[in-house]
Write a structure and sequence with these properties.
- The protein has helices spanning 3-22, 62-87, 95-100, 104-127, 131-154.
- It has 156 residues and is mainly α.
Length: 156
């Protein structure tokens, strides 16, 4: 056996041994029943409408406002750095922004549209109940803008 195959076999053996030791079903004190126990249900049942989950929040809560403000602020900084680089002879690396980057109003429209899209997608995710993802959209945009600013400043 080669060392890599041996290490894989050893790793899977240790994982198998640990799961066998930690598995509570292997340590049962009584045998499993042969047949399931009789179900005792009433002759009728009630249907209860689901309530709103307690984790639901308003869309314009404090956390979303902070995330949208940070996203907008970094987009303004990204716009400024990108515009300065383009005016000094640089070129736009993002092919979507490149289509708008021929003029300052076009570049501004691109960054405004980006922020409108972030808020719109966040609102859609909020309305469909994906409350964690609604915040992730802003965080990803913040990270992308921060990375673009850093790259733009480093390549001046």
């Amino acid at each position: 056996m080669t060392p890599t195959i041996l290490s894989k076999v050893l790793r899977f053996s240790v994982v198998g041994l640990m799961s066998g030791v930690l598995c509570p079903a292997l340590h049962a004190k009584s045998p499993l029943p042969d047949a399931p126990a009789a179900m005792t249900q009433p002759a009728f049942s009630f249907v209860v409408a689901p309530t709103k989950p307690s984790a639901e929040h308003k869309f314009w809560d404090k956390e979303n406002r902070v995330l949208f403000a940070a996203s907008a602020g970094l987009s303004v900084a990204d716009f400024a750095v990108t515009r300065a680089n383009l005016q000094s002879g640089g070129r736009e690396l993002n092919p979507v922004v490149r289509a708008f980057g021929t003029s300052t109003p076009g570049l501004a429209a691109n960054f405004v549209g980006e922020n409108v899209g972030v808020i719109g997608l966040s609102y859609f995710l909020h309305k469909t109940g994906h409350h964690k993802l609604e915040r992730v959209v802003s965080m990803v945009n913040i990270g992308g803008s921060a990375g673009a600013i850093g790259y733009g400043l480093a390549s001046r």
